[in-house]
Design a protein that fits this description.
Chain A is mainly alpha-helical. Chain A has 13 helices and two strands. In chain B, strands 1, 2, 3, 4, 6, 7, 8, 9 and 10 form a nine-stranded mixed beta sheet that branches. The chains are: A mainly alpha, B alpha/beta.
């Protein structure tokens, strides 16, 4: 009995060292795979989306890239003379996103400053929980709010002729982006060392001056990241804008005009587009455009952040 | 101090009201044009019947993703006009009487008028299969075309087949089986009802009904993902050729009823009649009618 135990222990110890090395190697490999997988996924998705769109350029699809890039006419399912112009859709996305950011950035950053600097104890905890809850509301529910609540308010309150429009979509998207901006923005402000605030106080700065002159410059990168995440959410959102923007192809002349966005177009038309037909492929090309927009936004952010870092190092 | 505050508040309220009404371009006389998304069978039908096959819709038409959504939006928007199946009427909207030419008295969208060919916006509804369907599906289609199926169609405010077109109620029980149905949103209401009543009568048959639009139903039929395809338009020759290419079978067409497309406006709208010519001016590209005051007898709902 005793001998057996010793033998077993010996074996176990042997195996432990072996499996320890093996385990470590495995974990290192796994982490490598995790790290690289993000790149692989992005490349794979891009290859897929671009692959579905690419035949437009050499196949016989009656598609002209010049029309795609310059025309405001979008009538891809027309029986005799379809038009595939992206301009009105692009302007629609731009209009809704810009309005939502104009509303969400001040509101979100303001809330982040309040939660992080001017608010303590129970109130702070409650606020943080409620804001996180706001982020968890599904976009379809936001769409419902847009159609059922916002739309009558816009018609009767503002005298608009239609309740689902840029204003409706912009407000809904702003409300959806605010929680993202608040959570990330608050983390960024929290990361500024207290010694900065104390130094400000010692110099006789008021609380607002500390926020404006000390915290904002110190937390610039994080706040920018917060805003860009908000922009990402606004551009990429589909369901809520599909329901709240009115889904009408046109160049808007006021915020009370309905518009159609790039994402909503894909969502509404992909299901019924003839597979591998022209409309199907043009919708994928819109996907490529959205990809490009996301890439430009992220790249700009990177360049700005690097620029800020560079200046700080000088 | 308090009076200054009140005055300031009043000033701001007035300023904002002006900004809202004039600055943003809200015009109570403007016609809000509501339509369907471009892959819907209803869109294609309306384009061909009203706007013209080679013409285009105007820009800025609010495209809804379903028949019900059109009626819902019109019921909430006092200045709106929209087209959708006759079966979707609600208490908050009004169906206009439609005539072919301007100035003529319009025809009310009713079953009798559509069947008699007097109502201008009516169209046949089809069920397509790839080749001869299974015995179960055959029994089901025969039942739909019989007086029992047509009675349900009538109850759902569609236009039933004429007596000559209506078949006898199929005798005997169908063999056990499952039937997948996909397609037209216009038909989804009645397709669901058919399935429900039929399954109650013959519990050994299971029927699954999906919407998504005529286009999607036809795509599913081509891909072999559905047994029956509901369509509110005729299948194109190319689509039939695709079915042949994929499955080697010819498409079988069954006319199962008719649908009348109603023109909906808000219930408080004073307008009662409209012509196809006027609808063309409202919906078509470069159409001349953009305001309610341009239509005879219409004043915008308050």
């Amino acid at each position: 009995m005793a001998t057996a135990e010793v033998v077993e222990t010996g074996v176990t110890v042997e195996r432990d060292t072996g499996s320890f090395r093996l385990g470590e190697w495995l974990i290192v490999a796994l982490i490598h795979v995790c790290g690289i997988s993000a790149i692989l996924f992005v490349l794979a998705i891009f290859a897929f989306v671009f692959g579905e769109a690419a035949p437009l350029f050499w196949g016989d699809y009656g598609f002209s890239f010049a029309e795609f890039a310059t025309s405001t006419h979008w009538s891809p399912a027309h029986p005799t003379s379809p038009h595939y112009g992206i301009v009105a859709l692009f302007v629609g996305t731009l209009a809704v996103s810009v309005l939502s950011m104009a509303l969400a950035v001040p509101l979100g950053l303001g809330a982040a400053v309040y939660v992080s600097e001017f608010c303590e104890g129970k109130r702070k905890e409650t606020l943080k929980i409620v804001i996180e809850l706001l982020a968890a509301i599904p976009s379809v529910v936001w769409g419902f709010i847009g159609v059922m609540v916002m739309s009558p308010i816009i018609i009767h309150g503002l005298g608009a002729s239609i309740g689902t429009n840029i204003l409706n979509g912009g407000v809904i998207l702003a409300l959806m982006s605010v929680p993202v901006i608040v959570s990330v923005g608050e983390d960024a402000l929290k990361a500024v060392p207290d010694s900065f605030r104390e130094a400000g106080l010692a110099l006789g700065a008021s609380r607002w001056e500390i926020v404006y002159r000390v915290l904002f410059p110190a937390a610039k990168n994080g706040l920018l990241a917060a805003v860009l995440l908000g922009v990402g959410r606004a551009i990429g959102e589909t369901m809520a804008v599909l329901m709240a923007t009115g889904h009408a192809v046109q160049i808007p002349t006021s915020v009370l005009d309905p518009v159609q966005t790039l994402t909503a177009t894909i969502a509404a038309e992909m299901g019924e587009a003839e597979q591998h037909g022209t409309q199907f492929r043009v919708l994928f090309l819109i996907g490529v455009v959205l990809f490009a927009v996301a890439f430009v936004v992220n790249l700009t952010a990177d360049i700005i952040v690097k620029g800020i870092r560079g200046k700080q190092n000088d | 101090m308090k009076t200054v505050n009140t005055k300031l508040a009043a000033l701001f309220a007035a300023a904002w009201a002006t900004v809202a009404l004039t600055g943003c371009g809200g015009d109570p006389d403007k016609i809000v044009v509501v339509g369907r998304q471009n892959s819907s069978g209803t869109y294609g039908y309306f384009l061909e019947e009203v706007v013209g096959k080679d013409a285009h819709f105007r820009q800025g038409i609010s495209a809804q993703n379903g028949s019900k959504e059109v009626v819902e939006l019109v019921s909430k928007t006092p200045g709106a006009i929209g087209y959708s199946g006759m079966g979707y009427a609600s208490d908050d909207v009004k169906m206009l009487h439609v005539s072919k030419k301007k100035g003529e008295t319009g025809t009310e969208p009713t079953i009798e008028m559509a069947r008699a060919g007097k109502y201008p916006l009516s169209r046949p509804l089809y069920i397509y299969t790839a080749g001869e369907p299974s015995e179960t599906a055959k029994h089901y289609i025969a039942w739909i075309k019989s007086s029992e199926g047509q009675e349900i169609l009538k109850q759902e405010h569609y236009v039933p087949l004429t007596e000559a077109e209506t078949g006898a109620v199929p005798s005997g029980n169908p063999p056990d089986g499952q039937i997948k149905v996909a397609g037209s949103d216009t038909m989804i209401q009645v397709a669901g009802k058919w399935a429900q009543v039929y399954m109650k009568k013959f519990p050994n048959v299971k029927i699954v009904v999906e919407g998504g639009g005529s286009g999607k139903g036809i795509t599913s039929l081509i891909d072999g993902q559905t047994d029956l395809c509901n369509a509110s338009r005729e299948m194109k020759d190319k689509e039939k050729a695709d079915v042949k290419a994929k499955s080697g079978k010819d498409t079988v067409e069954n006319k199962v009823g008719m649908d009348a497309l109603a023109i909906y406006v808000h219930k408080d709208n004073k307008l009662n009649d409209i012509s196809i010519e006027e609808l063309k001016e409202i919906y078509g590209e470069d159409g001349a009618i953009t305001k309610w005051s341009q239509l005879n007898g219409a004043t915008k709902a308050e």
